[in-house]
Specification:
With 323 residues, this protein is of the alpha/beta class. The chain folds into three domains: 76 residues, Arc Repressor Mutant, subunit A (Orthogonal Bundle); 116 residues, Periplasmic binding protein-like II (D-Maltodextrin-Binding Protein, domain 2); 104 residues, D-Maltodextrin-Binding Protein, domain 2 (3-Layer(aba) Sandwich), CATH 3.40.190.10. It has an eight-stranded mixed sheet. Helix 10 links the parallel strand 7 and strand 8. Helix 1 packs across helix 2, helix 1 packs across helix 4 and helix 2 packs across helix 3. The protein is elongated. 32% of the residues are buried.
Length: 323
């Protein structure tokens, strides 16, 4: 592995050429020269030099992240532990979009209990970032919509689950008393959406409510637990997977809006680079995901582990709900 990468990563870690030189046991001038050579090679500055030290540029930060992963991969490849225990290394998982993070809660619990020496590196982001990271080899497996990965020959996909969406509100919401709310009834209230609408099947619901106009007031919240917090304490409505609506947790606090289910379902898959042999941990994760979601084991996990609503309420002054 190019020693210049190790030196550049050390500079990013310590924010100093002199401290990086001490860490990698070379002279400061050698580190300075290595970084300068790298910057000429990649065609952009990796660091900004300041009176207080050095900080990565935006391009440099992305470069250092990839360099760090490459160095970790090299260490893992050459380590004795990886040869004696194939589950002792890292497993880099991507979830795209982050709205699907709840699907991983129970499978991760099973995975780390079975393989305690496994090190997890989990990232999330937009669907487009998932394709990019998988292409670059920066993640071992991506979890996301089949439509994101299945149409690309360079990826191999394994089906995990099928999900469908519905709109939901807090129990006691004005819409809860209506047998079949009309679109104009829904349009009076704020909406809670993930930063990125995860599937095209949601658009027919939105078009029924708002027509061609954009919603006037939308909370953009990626984390589903935080979406629930807003919906439970206001008159806003949100989008939920139908599997979650079957849980005791959901039914004690929320209600599905009648007649507002998505007309289609979306497939969730695990995607891997087709030309690479997956790590044993990837196969283990895929198998656990398929088992958990096929057998409905995720329900108890959702209501007991995923949400942070059970903690004692802080003594804050009540504020009136939105009307």
């Amino acid at each position: 592995m190019d020693a210049r990468l190790k030196q550049a990563v050390a500079v990013g870690r310590f924010g100093s050429f002199s401290k990086a030189a001490e860490a990698v046991n070379v002279t400061q001038s050698a580190v300075t020269k290595s970084v300068a050579e790298l910057e000429r090679r990649v065609g952009f500055p990796i660091f900004l030099r300041t009176s207080r030290g050095v900080v990565p540029t935006s391009e440099g930060r992305a470069f250092l992240e990839r360099a760090t992963r490459l160095l970790a991969d090299a260490d893992e490849l050459l380590s004795e532990a990886s040869r004696t225990d194939p589950f002792s290394g890292s497993l880099r998982i991507g979830i795209f979009p982050p709205t699907f993070e709840w699907m991983l809660a129970k499978p991760l619990e099973v995975l780390v209990r079975r393989h305690p020496r496994l090190l997890l590196d989990i990232t999330s982001g937009a669907k487009e970032r998932g394709v990019q990271l998988l292409d670059q080899g920066d993640i071992d497996v991506a979890i996301g919509l089949a439509s994101t990965f299945s149409d690309k020959a360079r990826f191999r996909v394994e089906p995990v689950a099928t999900i469908a969406a519905a709109l939901f509100v807090r129990r006691g919401h004005p819409l809860h008393a209506l047998a079949a709310p009309a679109a104009e009834d829904m349009a009076r209230y704020d909406m809670v959406l993930p930063t990125q609408i995860w599937d095209l099947s949601l658009y027919p619901i939105l078009s029924r409510i708002y027509g061609h106009a954009e919603p006037n007031r939308v909370h953009r919240i990626e984390n589903f637990s935080l979406q629930c917090k807003v919906i439970e304490n206001t008159d806003a409505f949100g989008v939920v997977d139908l599997e979650i609506t079957k849980t005791e947790y959901f039914q004690s606090r929320f209600a599905v809006v009648p007649g507002m289910k998505a007309p289609a379902t979306a497939g969730i898959v695990c995607a891997m680079r087709d030309q690479w042999t997956p790590k044993p941990a990837v196969g283990a994760l895929v198998g656990i995901l398929q088992q958990v979601h096929a057998e409905g084991l995720l329900n108890s996990d959702i209501q007991s582990r995923l949400f942070g609503h059970e903690c004692a309420a802080l003594p804050l002054e009540d504020t009136p709900r939105q009307r």
